[in-house]
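Q: I'm writing up a methods section and want to include an example of the input and output format. Could you take the sequence below and give the corresponding predicted structure tokens, formatted cleanly so I can copy it straight into the document?
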Amino acid sequence: MKIRSFAKLGGAVALSALVLAGCGSKSTQSQKKELTWVQQSNMTTMDISKVTDQIGAQTLNNSNEGLLRMAEHNKVVPGVAKNYQVSKDGKTWTFNLRHSKWSDGSPVTAKDFVFSWRQTVDPKTAGQYAYIFANIKNATKINSGKMATSKLGVKADGNYKLVVTLEKPQTYFKYLVADVEFFPQKASAVKKYGSKYGTTSQDMAYNGPFKMTGWTGTNDTWHLVRNKNYWNAKKVKLDKVNFQVIKTPETFLNQYQDNKVQVTPLVGQQVKQYKNNKDYVLRSNAATWYLEMNQHKYKFFRNVNIRKALSLTVDRKQFTNKVLADGSIPAKGFVAADMSTHNGKDFADDAYVKSAVESNMALAKKYWAKGMKETGKKTVSFNLMADDTDAGKKTAEYLQSRFTKLPGLKIKNLNIPYKTRLARSQDGQFDMVVTEWIADFPDPITFLSLMQSNNAYNNGPWQNKEYDQLTTNAEGRDANRPNARWNDMVKAGKLLANQEGVIPLYQQAQPQLVKSSVKGIQAFPTAPLWDWSKTTVK
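A: Here is the clean output for your methods example:
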């Protein structure tokens, strides 16, 4: 979501702001019960089977709903399903659905989930998140075109009971069914809108706390309005959430000081200035920014000494403290810290490889010379692609200044809109790209699975058979053996680090100023990050 994890987010969430609609008088604002959430980029799609960006995912998380909903502290709570049971062998999950409705008043049934999941794993859909269904019986064979979608291990037992059969036990499956990829889809709507489905707010069906209006697919404003047919509508306090895309969020600080904005992001030196303010809030994300290299297009990037040299040029502490200066911290590895523990130990600490994330320019030049000799190169030039956000530009400029200390290397920075960067990354139209993964659920495999050789999000792709086997063991042979599974993942994490399959940069933080009048914003370290269904404004 992946940034999202979930899909790769171009700094948009980190630079979000919450604004009181209309910025009028307090009485008018309170009466309207409206908020405006500022995004830095537009959505790519609202198609549940195709969404990959975090902005689309967080919107869907509020306009639609799955079997369960994410809650704070890595908990899940009932959604469309009022309860569920898991068989003793851990392979059969039975969800008992409540009598909920779509926004048009028609019932949400188990068949809507069956249709949706089949739609996503269907190879004709070409959904990048199909891989996350891999543990559902026959999903992999179906997605590779070797079996009909009707053979997927999910069935409707009447209208309000959904039975899911897994290939093997999966303790974190409860988190998966809370992800937007597992949400129901109304078959009649998908068929009615055809290729337009999910491309505008009108060409979509909703079953969540809100429903979306005003999105044409390309415009910079849209809205979430209260869904009166939502099963828990009485608990939704806001009438409307307004979204607008603004690429200069720093301007909201002045509006915050003028009491026109209730929540504003802080960037750069603003954090230092306001970190002792009573309104200051620092939220940590299970999100890692990293460098991905096009190893398919350039044999040069397949050389491990070249990758190690590039990584060693980066002073991550200097970068996060002096350049970003927003509370973000140096990455310990590809998997985010403070997300997942086992026997009291954080995964990021267990899989930590100091040499993979340290800075040593002298050693970098030695690896560089060795790699240049091995690849027969005397000079090298490539484009560094990043978002056109403030953070994206700062990151590219810093990396360029560090990389070009290596003899014979020239870098051209290419800062482009997030939506374009995402598309080009997926199509392999890049040399090196600054990108991000936000955990879809609190388990190391949400990161590690990305780097499996055939994963759709492994855009390089970096490929390693030993790594593939370790992650396969964690999801297969050792899936129900916690200690062995953890060890598999730690070994995989260390292997990825030692090989510099990707180059981790930093773990994102979200510094904000929040007025005391705003309550109930649910923030999660993993996807979908935000839930406004319980938000209130006084």
